[in-house]
């Protein structure tokens, strides 16, 4: 379930198409390789749809020590342990220069009941996280887009707890329990190479939902249905609680976000409904090219949240929030929504002893500008494998992303300037670009140096009311991921 072999994006698409063509979608029989990870982190091979053998431990440091894992697997049990260490240094700009550390350890246990005479295509999964270190994003940069998917609140917490069951020859897969949605919904497989969290669960969703929604490191009670009615179409639907921490939309010191242990399974706020349709294609075949397969995944989807969401400009008594006579509480509306599209496509591939491939991704999100700070978001990038001499499994990538403020959020910033002479929030779109290089040192060890440049940091906000806007930031990082 963890980083086990070198990343191979083009193999992902081929495996997906073969899996669908054979009528077998193995989501119930083995968790996705990224189920324990934030979606905006390096995506290993094998990836969803290309699962490793249940008794293959060669990609872990301890392998099948003394046959213990093989013995457990005989009874349907599989234990996995992953560790991630990151160091980030702000070279220029941001709030101030300096270095910081963050890390995570994750453990998971799965149980396949068919091994002891239980239901076929069933799987029980439980996982836990230990998150540590400081946030380079908030402490040193002040950016809206988090530098890393692992940059999260320090805690020791239960992550996911669910049971999955396949039906109709495993073409229909249902999961019930405490779920993390961002490993399956809105995900671009190529974007998962990059470390910036916005390339996983996008900025608009993490900012405009309660606690960022049921996304890493949070999960929420609910159900997820995945159905493969025919090749090459996959349909997904999920319904979960929309507030994994149980806190207010705007947490404060008096009423902070709760559920640091991950053991609160509340359904008191609202319901989050997500849907997605995926189409798996071979661009070479569609274009009539005499060429090796060029796999791609095209997705459209969206969500609707039944909870109450604040107006970004007006108060409960109808006044502008920045005005002296405004009530303390903002005006609230029932319901919120977002739509999105994801385009993942391999554009060049050469087979051989040293396979080479290049893939692109594009993702756009959109919602209204009344209840949402960010009404539009976009990410795009390029990943290339096999071009580094003598390093056939190394993957290089370059990507860009941005979040665009909604009209009410921009008006609120102007109101703040009008009434107080200060701008407490930004009005410009924050952009970031990332260069990254993932290199597998051992089958169980990946090292990934990373560079990010962010301009209009914080949306052009100031670190203090009497100072200029936060300078554009240049950041260097190093991610080291190990599987035990």
Notes on the protein architecture:
The protein is mainly beta and 484 residues long. It has one domain: Beta Barrel (Porin). It is 10% helix and 43% strand. It has helices at residues 9-21, 68-74, 136-141, 203-208, 283-286, 407-420, and strands spanning 77-92, 98-111, 122-133, 155-167, 172-179, 220-230, 233-241, 271-282, 295-315, 330-350, 356-366, 374-385, 395-405, 430-442, 445-455, 473-483. It is globular, with a radius of gyration of 22 Å. Mean pLDDT is 83; it is low at 1-34 and 39-54. GO terms for molecular function: porin activity. This is Porin. It comes from Acetobacter indonesiensis. Keywords: Signal. Residues 1-27 form the signal peptide.
Question: Summary?
Answer:
By secondary structure, the chain is mainly β. It has 6 helices and 16 strands. The model is unreliable at 1-34 and 39-54 (pLDDT under 50).
């Amino acid at each position: 379930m963890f980083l086990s072999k070198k990343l191979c994006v083009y193999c992902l698409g081929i495996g997906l198409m073969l899996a669908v063509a054979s009528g077998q979608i193995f989501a119930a029989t083995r968790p996705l390789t990224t189920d324990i990870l934030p979606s905006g982190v390096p995506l290993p091979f094998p990836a969803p749809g290309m699962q490793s053998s249940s008794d293959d431990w060669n990609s872990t440091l301890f392998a099948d020590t003394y046959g213990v894992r093989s013995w457990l697997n005989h009874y349907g049990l599989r234990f996995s342990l992953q560790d991630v260490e990151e160091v980030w240094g702000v070279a220029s700009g941001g709030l101030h220069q300096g270095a910081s550390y963050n890390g995570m350890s994750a453990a998971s246990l799965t149980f396949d009941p068919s091994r002891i005479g239980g239901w076929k295509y069933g799987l029980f999964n439980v996982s836990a996280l230990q998150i540590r270190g400081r946030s380079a994003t908030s402490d040193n940069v002040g950016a809206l887009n988090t530098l890393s998917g692992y940059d999260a609140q320090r805690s020791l917490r239960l992550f996911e707890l669910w049971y999955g069951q396949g039906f109709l020859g495993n073409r229909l897969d249902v999961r019930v329990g405490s779920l993390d949605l961002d490993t399956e919904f809105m995900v671009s497989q190529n974007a998962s190479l990059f470390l910036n969290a916005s390339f996983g669960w996008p900025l608009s969703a993490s900012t405009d939902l309660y606690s960022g929604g049921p996304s890493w490191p949070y999960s929420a009670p609910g159900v997820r249905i995945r159905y493969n009615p025919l090749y090459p179409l996959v349909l997904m639907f999920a319904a979960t609680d929309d507030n994994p921490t149980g806190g207010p939309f705007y947490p404060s010191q008096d009423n902070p976000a709760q559920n640091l242990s991950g053991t609160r399974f509340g359904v008191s706020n609202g319901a989050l409904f997500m849907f997605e349709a995926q189409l798996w294609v071979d661009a070479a075949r569609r274009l009539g090219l005499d060429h090796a397969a060029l796999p791609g995944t095209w997705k459209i989807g969206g969500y609707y949240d039944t909870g109450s969401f604040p107006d970004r400009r007006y108060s409960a008594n109808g006044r502008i929030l920045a005005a002296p006579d405004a009530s303390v509480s903002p005006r609230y509306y029932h319901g919120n929504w977002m739509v999105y599209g994801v385009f993942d496509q391999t554009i060049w591939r050469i087979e051989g002893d040293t396979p080479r491939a290049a893939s692109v991704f594009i993702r756009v999100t959109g919602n209204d500008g009344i209840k949402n700070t960010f009404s539009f978001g976009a990410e795009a990038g390029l990943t290339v494998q096999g071009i580094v001499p003598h390093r056939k499994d190394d993957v290089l990538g370059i990507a860009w992303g941005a979040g665009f403020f909604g009209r009410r959020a921009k008006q609120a910033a102007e109101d703040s300037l009008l009434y107080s002479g200060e701008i407490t929030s930004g009005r410009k779109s924050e952009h970031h670009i990332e260069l990254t290089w993932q290199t597998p040192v051992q089958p169980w060890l990946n090292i990934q140096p990373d560079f990010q440049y962010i301009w209009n940091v914080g949306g052009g906000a100031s670190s203090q009311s009497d100072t200029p806007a936060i300078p554009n930031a240049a950041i260097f990082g190093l991610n080291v991921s190990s599987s035990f």
